[in-house]
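From the thread on structure requests for the teaching lab: each student submitted one protein with a one-line request. Submission from student K.M.:

"Model SCO family protein from Hydrocarboniclastica marina, tokens only."
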Amino acid sequence: MTPSHRTARSFLPRGLLSLALMLVLSGCSPGPVEWNGKDISELMPELAYQLVDEQGNPATAEDYAGQVRLLFFGFTHCPDICPATLAHLRNALREIPEQQRDDVTVLFVSVDPKRDDPEVLAEYTEYFGPNFVGMTGTEPELRKLSQRYRTTFGYGEPDAEGHYDVSHSSAIYAFDREGNARLLLRSELTPEQIAEDLTHLLNEDR
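Reply posted by the TA:
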């Protein structure tokens, strides 16, 4: 047997052992999370705002620090998208273990400050449950916040009675406990899929 053959033969068991060890370790290590929503990590800025909440108090992202937060823009006179989306999120929260549910807050930001004062917002969010908090601000403040998350809104022409529609995005932004933008949740996701994503965020190491 030549020296080269002896070398190849002597290293063969060690190579197989290393390969087997790598396979075992890879099987035991948790893989990356397969999100149902769109991963927007490092694509959007962290959660930050200066608004007024449904109690009429100044509101900032520090108010719910340490919680997973969902940000959704809308208005209380919305005939379809807003109530359907908030009801959808309410159903998703019901899928989360009860002991973790209080660690999720839905921030409903009204882009219709002329009609949605704190009292109106409080009455509206009460219907969906204690995890929902309404807030609003001046139009410039709302424009600044919507642009921060690359969305927009607009107002339709008032009718004879002064009623008008408001156009806005249906996107839901999910932020982790540290306030980092993590996911873009769309309406086609089921409550179970949303709950699965939120549970992953809740269970991440802090």
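TA comment: The mean pLDDT is 88. The first strand starts at residue 38 and ends at 39.
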